[in-house]
Design brief:
Chain A has about 230 residues and is of the alpha/beta class. Helices cover about 30% and strands about 25% of the residues of chain A. The chains are: A alpha/beta (about 230), B alpha+beta (about 375). The complex binds adenosine-5'-diphosphate and magnesium ion.
């Protein structure tokens, strides 16, 4: 273990002995080899490393999209590696917000409808869903663009809609895989400012994968992944 | 749930492929609805007309009037059987008629086509409650004049009021009127005086059938029992609706079988078309679907959404096809009736059940065609969202 963890605060995310081995054409590819990682509540943390080092793999496993070959992932004290497929989907919708490199908005839905999407998995009524989606869009500064379709928005605006979608469920954790990878410097800056704000003002735990050192600078904690292991 | 507008707009976003697939389904449903409308038209003409209180007497063993021969002398005997209704003059209500086939020139068709010619007594129009002359006039009794059934009007050479046709070589019959009979098969016949037909075609002393009005439908068994009791005379008695139903069955089986085979093959084609469209659409929406999965939408909701999308596509196409088919209701089609080998003209009947069956078939095509693609969609991994 190469980091001293504070024993008094239980981390939001606690990864232990995590390994991931991909099989490709009978050949085994060890991407993660027994790594440990803690993410503290309400902090903005960056995960860096060269391309192909396994950043996305690690993020996907923490987000419950993929399963580890060995080791455990505890989120809020719950081990998610034993959840069934369906339970994991429900868990994601309650606990996580997703931000993708290419925004991943539904092109046929308006900004408001896109943000409302995660709420369709809750028991909230239509009026309440709409209210919350509007609030989320206000937080990202897009209250004027609610009726716009993704193709009518700039990349930076699309990513802000995606951030509104990620926070509308009020999740504890937000994962972002290269959220500024497709953006110009100015738009990237706006997104990073928003992420900082979400951590500091709304107490979100944020894990951001990036290979951009400037972006990583904005995070409070930086982890570096190299040859399947972490250097923090 | 995944909102339905997501599926509607996704279909609209792919206008060209959506339209092409819907058009394929529209065509198939058009064919299906046309077959069903034709079958309903045959039913209407042959199957559901006829009066329950009419009995039809034929020579035993002859299924159709055309190959039935009864001595004219027996007509009085048949009409005198118990159960026959009497008119206010005390005479039984009934008609003995002779039915023959005439080969005439059909307009716009080379060669000759068979037409049913019915030699009728003077009261044939009065006997049939629905029958009436709609243009021209009734023939003079005992004359070489004829009425043309409405559906044959203008279809053969000479089949218009004021024209004439040949009964046999050098024997012209002039057309003096057009008649209708509530859409029954009589409308595909030519009616002339019974003696004219008999003398012109060498049928003296014979009739093909005797139709008898009964006091009530419940008198049928008694009447039948009496008429059929003399085995030497060898008569067969049927209720009129039953008789007509029998005339219709061959044709209906033919139309339904031919149409059914056509519709099944076409449906399979349309279904495969819908399937290919959905597979294509899903392949290009891997990341969208992955994102929905990442956001927490369960597999079954994805499955349902894509089945609905395909069903919607199909039902839209089906509605267009069914509506287009109802446009045929103003048209008619002719077929050779197997029991008489003569031309019969039918109309297309767009009944509620025809429309409902067509739309249900479209829905079924959508659900069946959408099933495998929807399963593929439901199998998309949430990791696809990250790629
Ligand atoms: N599903 C998979 N099957 C096989 N190999 C994979 C799979 N996903 C990722 N990899 C491999 O794992 C390694 C790490 O990938 P990834 O986590 O995407 O790296 P990064 O995000 O750091 O660029 C790469 O060599 C990649 O080719
Ligand atoms: Mg990556």
């Amino acid at each position: 273990m190469n980091q001293a963890y504070r024993a008094d605060v239980r981390p939001m995310v606690r990864v232990r002995g995590l390994s991931k081995i991909y099989e490709r054409g009978g050949e085994q590819l060890k991407v993660l080899s027994g790594l440990d990682l803690d993410l503290a509540e309400g902090t903005f943390e960056a995960l860096m490393g060269p391309s192909g080092s396994g950043k996305s793999t690690l993020l996907n496993i923490i987000a419950g999209l993929d399963r580890p070959s060995a080791g455990s992932v505890e989120v809020k004290g719950e081990d998610i590696s034993h959840l069934s497929e369906g339970a994991l989907a429900a868990w994601r919708s309650r606990t996580l917000g997703f931000i993708f490199q290419s925004y991943n908005l539904m092109p046929v839905l308006t900004a408001l409808e896109n943000v409302e999407l995660p709420l369709l998995l809750t028991s909230l009524g239509g009026a309440e869903r709409r209210k919350r989606a509007e609030t989320a869009l206000r937080i990202v500064g897009l209250e004027q663009r609610m009726g716009h379709y993704p193709r009518q928005l700039s990349g930076g605006q699309e990513q802000r809609v995606a951030i509104a979608r990620a926070i509308v469920n009020d999740p504890a954790i937000i994962v972002a895989d290269e959220p500024t990878g497709d953006l110009d410097r100015q738009s990237a800056d706006d997104i990073l400012t928003l992420l900082e704000k979400l951590a500091s003002e709304m107490n979100k735990t944020i894990l951001m994968v990036t290979h951009d050192p400037v972006a990583a600078e904005r995070a409070k904690v930086r982890h570096r992944l190299d040859k399947g292991a972490l250097i923090t | 749930m995944i909102p339905f507008r997501y599926n509607i707009r996704s279909l609209l976003a792919r206008k060209a492929t959506t339209a092409a697939t819907a058009l394929g389904i529209a065509l198939v449903v058009f064919v299906l609805a046309t077959v069903l409308m034709a079958s309903a038209g045959i039913d209407k003409t042959l199957g559901s007309s006829g009066r329950a209180d009419n009995a039809v007497v034929l020579r035993k063993g002859s299924d159709a009037e055309l190959n039935s021969n009864i001595d004219a002398a027996s007509v009085g005997l048949i009409l005198a059987a118990p159960g026959a209704k009497l008119n206010d003059k005390g005479a039984p209500v009934g008609v003995g008629e002779v039915v023959v086939v005439l080969a005439l020139e059909k307009i716009g068709d080379p060669g000759f086509t068979n037409v049913l010619l019915r030699g009728v007594p003077d009261d044939a129009l009065a006997f049939r409650s629905g029958a009436r002359v709609t243009s021209g006039r009734s023939p003079k009794p005992g004359s070489d004049e004829a009425l043309i059934g409405k559906r044959l009007q203008g279809r053969f050479k000479g089949f218009q009021v004021g024209q004439s046709f040949e009964l046999r070589k050098n024997r012209q019959v002039s057309v003096v009127g057009i008649f209708e009979d509530d859409g029954s098969s009589f409308e595909s016949e030519v009616w002339a005086d019974i003696d004219t037909v008999r003398s012109g075609l060498g049928r003296e002393g014979l009739v093909s059938s005797v139709r008898v009005r009964l006091e009530s439908a419940s008198k049928f068994e008694a009447f039948k029992g009496s008429v059929e009791s003399d085995k030497n005379l060898g008569f067969e008695v049927m209720r009129e609706p039953e008789f007509l139903e029998k005339q219709a069955s061959g044709l209906r089986i033919f139309v339904t079988a031919l149409g059914g085979v056509l519709a099944v093959f076409a449906s399979v084609g349309a279904m495969i078309g819908a399937m290919i469209t959905m597979y294509g659409s899903i392949a290009s929406r891997q990341r969208e679907i992955g994102t929905l999965r990442a956001l927490g939408f369960p597999r079954w909701q994805i499955l349902l959404a894509f089945m609905l999308e395909c069903a919607l596509l199909s039902v839209c196409g089906g509605t267009v096809g069914a509506l287009a088919a109802t446009g045929l209701r103003f048209g008619s089609f002719s077929m050779v009736n197997f029991t008489s080998w003569s031309e019969m003209v039918f109309t297309f009947q767009p009944t509620i059940s025809v429309i409902a069956t067509s739309l249900i078939a479209a829905l079924a095509m959508g659900i069946l065609g959408g099933f495998l693609p929807a399963i593929r969609a439901a199998r998309v991994s949430p990791i696809q969202a990250m790629r």
